[in-house]
Each structure stands twice: as C-alpha cells, then as structure tokens.
Specification:
This protein is of the alpha+beta class. It contains five helices and nine strands. The strands form two sheets. Strands 1, 4, 5, 6, 7, 8 and 9 form a seven-stranded antiparallel β-sheet that branches. The longest helix is centred in the first third of the chain and has 27 residues, at 2-28.
Length: 213
Amino acid sequence: MRTVLLRSAGTALLLAWNLFERALSLIVSTGPRKAHRLASGKAAQQARHASEARLRAIADGYEEQTPLTLRLLVIDDHCVPGTLDWDLFTPRRPTYKLRCWMRLTAYYTSPLPSSDTIDAILAAGDQPLSAIPFTHEHDGTGTELIPGPPGDRVRAGHVLDWDNRIRTLPEPEENCGLYRHVHEPPHATVADIRHQHGSIYRLVLPADDYYRI
C-alpha cells in the first residue's frame, strides 16, 4: 500500500513539474506568431536587405576579379525564436527574442582549367585590400586550408571547392523551416550548368548573424 502511495505521489509530482515547465516555457519563450511578426518587422527587413547586399557583393567580387562566372546563387535565411532553456532544474531565460542569420552559396564556372583558375583566384587575393581571403602565401601551408570535403580551400570562413576526378559537387540542399529561400535563377540546376559550361566551383560564405532582438 505504501509503495502504491509513493508511486502515485511521484507520478503526481512529475505531472505537476511537466505542467510547470510547459507553462513557464509558454510565458518566457517567443511564440511562433510573435517570432514571425518580429522577423517581418521594419528593423529586421532593413537588416536583412543590408546582409544580403553584403553577401552578394562578396560573391560578385569573385566574378569581377577572377575568371569565375556566377551561374547560380542560393541564399538560406533563418529566423528562430528564443526559447526557454534548462540547466538541470534551473530555468534559464533566452538571451534573445529572435535571432536571424543568412548563408549564401554561389556556384560558378570558369573557361580555364582548374589549376589556372585557382592560381588566378589566389592572385586576386594577393592584391591589397582584396575581399578574397585566398592567397599564394597561404596556399598549401596555412592551417586554415583544409584539403578534401567540405572544401578544397577554406580561409576566413570562405569555403571554396570544385568538381574533380573523384567527385562532383551535388545539388543545393533543400532546407525545411527557412524564413526565406532564394534560388537564382529559379530553375537552374548544378547538373544543367555543368552540362553547358563544364566544371562547377562552389563558394560558401560565412553565415551572417544579421538580426537579434
């Protein structure tokens, strides 16, 4: 009898604790409707446009300063609400109501062989005040250059890789739950671009944490 009572009391306490957690989470966390309203607000939109312009300018810079021709641009725009967190049994308030960040992936082709294309990219990075972080100085020796997946060249958060004999670059991943997704041109595919223009070069820029409230 005593064991049954203890079990019943434990179940009741667990249920009460779960209800408390849910109630506190609803009170403290940012709800979906509020999150969408904040993400669609004027301040967020201004920050979003500025972030996209910065990322596009970098992607365009590679085309302007190197043999690369931009064929496909993919932008993933994430916005997540702040949620209540727990440290054991201690609730921790979220540090933000909403956080938004953006990632840009650009796909290029080049009329030159891969070795000449990469050499031209490194030469462009050698120039003073260049926004391209890849340089001859760090080619093959810098600790930020990582051979193989996810990139043949990685520096300052820029990840550059390209088709080779072992593997070809895949199509862009389809992410669920994004606030906004840009695929430009809309119906372009990596396979079609490769068929028309040859080897693909993919540039992934560092995620830009552009809005937090």
